[in-house]
Amino acid sequence: MKSEELAEILDHWLKPPRTRSKGERAPGGRAVINRLIKTQAKECVIKEMKLAATLFLSPPEDLSEKMLTGVVYEKLIHDVKKRTPLTWELLHAAACTKGQEQRNKRKNPDLVIVNMISQAQYSRSQRRGKLAKLHAIYLKANGMPARAFNLIHILEIAASHRWTANAYKTLSGTMMNEVCQAIHTSDWLPSHDNVNFALRAFSQRLHNQSHFISATAATVWILPKSAVKLPDHANRLLQAHRAEQSIARFDLSDILYVPPEVNTRIKAQNVNYVLRLLLDSDDFADYAHLNDPLFNAPPAVEQLPQGDEAITKQYILRTTEIEEASYDGTDKVMKEIFRQLRLDSEDKQKRTGLHRIIPWAGDQLTVDRLRGLWRYRSEDLNSCDRADYLIPVFGWFHLLMALANSLHAQYLGTSSGIGGLSQAFELLKRKGLINPSIKGPFWHHLDEALHHISEAHFRACWIQVGGVTTLAELKSRNATELQTMAGTIVTEHASRAALIKHAKLPENQQDEVWKQSTMWNMDVLAYIELRAAIRAGDVGRMEDLLPTLVLRFAGGGNSKYTIELLELIRGLRTEWTEDIKAYVKRNCWLFTRSGKPGSFLSFDLGQEENICDIKVVSIKAESQDTYQYVQVNYSSLGPGANMQYLSDILPAIPTLRKVKDSVNSQFSMLRGRGRKHGIPDKKHDIATLTSCYVESELHKRRLGRKIKSAKNRAEDYINKGAISLAESNTVTDWVSRRTVERATEEEWNMSEDSE
User: Where do the DUF6589 domain residues begin and end (predicted)?
Assistant: First the structure.
């Protein structure tokens, strides 16, 4: 039995040799040996499936973000191969021929085999459904309908649709418990905004009509480890400092007279932007001095931390059916958020009112309502009711959109106006940009247009200042010469000093077209600089732009953002303690989800992205005898769903994002798909605009040139804003409205109603 010839003997029994090439082969012991092989193989497969069971084990209670994102297919394949060698060989032979194995470059039979084994394990026991559960969560997060779910569940590829719907609830509950614990161990910042659900009734009755549900979506942002911390007594210090400084005179000189070092920093960033437009162009792809240190970006003014310790974690709270546009609605939303966070007991309210500082982020309307409640409740009985803990923080994304709309209103003009936005929109065939809108992709299209038009203007400036006909001719200049030329462009074609110098000329020597082009360059640079500073996470650069922004909004008639910026400047200059100033700037303006350079977002944009995830896909919801359609993404809904169910499952969205990212990152075909749209080449558009501006000599002075139509003559918003703030009662009225005496008593006898 130990002979080396035993294998040959058995092989001869299975397939007896023969001397002739024709005729039937003797059957030998084929039937018996085949039966023996099948029996032994079957027993071996059963044994190996038991050994590999723990790799797929996932008890019902083991449903968490860690479990779902911890599945690594490569590691799972390695472990399954090790525990099921025979089973793997058999399935590999079934899934892949030898010829395929040699020439295959794209297909991965290992993934097919591991899923075969997973299906078999799941068929043996529902407790071995780790992959099935992961697939179900992933597919539903990507919008797979219930009918398709039922099919793949029958095939044991994924868990059932019903299980997935219940899993969403479980994940939501886990996330809510987690956030309620996290707010006691880390600093945090809430934000909220309105969200509308469209319900359409197909069988209309008096009690069943199509309508919108006005609800509020809220997010709690857990600040990262690198966040600036506040001392324990920061709340009381802030109240005392506010009371002391609330009657202080507001000094307009902080806005009208910017310190020289601030102007120097802004100019350096503008020069670098103008220089990069040239160096990043195709004409300079082979420029010999591209890596010259002179072309390095200016140092950051106040850079936020980067890396893993700078990542902000978010928790989406349960959406509540409260309309937040009114003061009463905002008050109800705040109470509901505190209730969900389990901060509504008397002890927790005392802790909040006396010891916490809670910056609250939102768009302009949200922040205005929060500030109004803080002002109107100044005489309430205790610090929690008075919202002494509150610091409203407006969102920079909405301010950026307002700034883009301000440029649109200032420079729109008509299609016949030289250098105006209308002319550029028509020349580039950019549709839908004439009438401003806050809905849809308008801001995205306008933002692209502003960058392209700006680039064309500065390319024309390079040609004008360089005395050349094409940008390629400038490659003969060294780094020092290009740096000097970029400074000349900013100083002479994009600065307030150039406009003041031009205004001193006799009227018959003034060039209105050149003046307006220079004013455009100056104004659009502020927009581009703010956009870049936000993305880079440099809050110091953002703060440097505050005087420019408040003057622009004051001159452009945007009183709401004028007040918001005045409130911010007031806080930074006088009303906030040094600790609060640093805390707000470094923790409450921007955040990053990845910690990578250039990945910073404002909190209101993060809130909008959460709302977008809530409102995208139409799904069917049934409530008793009514059939309606609700717009929701990341939602596992079907018959029996309603608004309460929506509220229950939406906190799971951050987990679902991580599950999608985890799976997508493991497969090249999924990596990056659907995360961003392809951006068409802009070369032809910018070249067309540049040629138009060069031919029109927009940036070359011509004595006495006039703009004929008043519609094409843009106002100087910044100059107008400076005059408005200095001569009107805007600042005085604002200070008088916000100056209120606040109570200081602490009465905590909560009524039964408040409980």
Answer: 255-677
What CA–CA distance (Å, rounded) separates 529 from 272?
10
Q: Is 297:265 a contact under the CB 8 Å cutoff?
A: no
The whole domain housing 111 covers: 29-159
pLDDT of 637 over the 60 cut: no
The set of residues, in sequence order, having a beta carbon less than 8 Å from that of 362 and lying 6+ positions away, is: 191, 192, 193, 370, 392, 393, 394, 395, 604, 607
- My answer on whether 403 and 544 are in the same domain is yes
**pLDDT for residue 647:** 79
Sequence-distant (6+) residues with CB within 8 A of 18 are 25, 26
Closest CA to 560 of 739, 372, 332: 372
Is 449 in contact with 430 (CB distance < 8 Å)?
A: yes
Domains in the chain, number: 2
Does 217 fall in a domain? Answer: no
Residue 297 sits in the same domain as residue 154: no
Amino acid letter, residue 470: T
Q: CA 402, CA 549: separation in Å to the nearest integer?
A: 10
Band (pLDDT 50/70/90 cuts) for residue 5 is: confident
Global pTM?
0.88
Residue 159, helix vs strand vs coil? coil
Q: Which tokens sit at 638? A: 């079907």
Is 215:322 a contact under the CB 8 Å cutoff? yes
- The answer to whether the beta carbons of residues 593 and 581 sit under 8 Å apart is no
- The sign of the torsion formed by the CA atoms of 168, 169, 171, 172 equals positive
Residues 263 and 124 occupy one common structural domain: no
Q: 139, 159, 179 — which closes off a domain?
A: 159
323-361 residue pLDDT tens: 898 999 999 999 999 999 999 999 999 999 999 999 999
Q: Is residue 353 part of a domain?
A: no
pLDDT in tens, 698-711: 999 999 999 988 99
